[in-house]
What we know:
Largest sheet: none
Number of strands: 0
Number of helices: 2
Shape: elongated
Helix content: 40-55%
Radius of gyration: 16 Å
Amino acid sequence: MPSSELTAEAAERYLDAVASMLGLAVAPDYRPGVVLNLQIAMRLVRIAETLDLGDHDEPAAVFEA
């Protein structure tokens, strides 16, 4: 696993810190899913960071699923 990947332990610490700051309670049954979602989101961030965008690149005007 690359060192830049968010470990489950780090994701749990992040979840605890952010939930505390926002005054949110995350039910124990939901914690594994939230932690996994944070890890996946971080992988997507790492991919997006590798994109080489030019000065004139614009976001898409229309998003379709």
